[in-house]
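Write out the 3D structure for:
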Amino acid sequence: MMRMLCLLMPLLLLGCEGGPTTETTTDTEAAAEADPYAVPSRTGNYLNVIVEIPAGTNHKIEYHPGTGYVNDTIVDGTERIINFLPYPGNYGFVPSTLMDRSQGGDGDALDVLVIGESMPTGTQVAVQPIATLLLRDRGEIDTKIIAVPADSASRVYRADNFLDFSLGNDAAKRIIETWFLNYKGQGAVELLRWEDEAYAWREVARWATDTLATQ
């Protein structure tokens, strides 16, 4: 018995603090670190999102290739800080999407607001779309997908679809609408309409550059 314990001890120590771990970096996580835009737009039945702005901050943060995540600046070079309430969710984009200007888009990836606890800038998270908010911003249609984490354990908000969002959580829906209509100043953004989760998926399919990869 003593001889067996001696043989097993090195293996047991591997699980102790300071020893190797079993955690591995997935291909998509590695891609997110190298180039967030290259991450697939979806994984299985869920949408992928790269978080730029954590919930609860007023600082406008954007990802720029070659530079990384930086604070957006205004004309005089100072950091852009939202002169309103903090972001009501984690704000980011759907990787491998591009709203082509020649087809009526704004030239950027699809925007997503993920309702949940604050996530660090650069986080890649799988989400379930529950609604789509359509706005007009400086003459352009601005589409905001509203989503919740795919992992139910990470959710702080019970809504699986637009019906839940509209009927069971209408107060939260109105708060999000009010926030987007005021975060750039009163009257700067116009509400067009709300759409459901099916509309969100159609928007992703329309602007996806990876044919909706499903690995």
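Confidence is low (pLDDT under 50) at residues 1-25.
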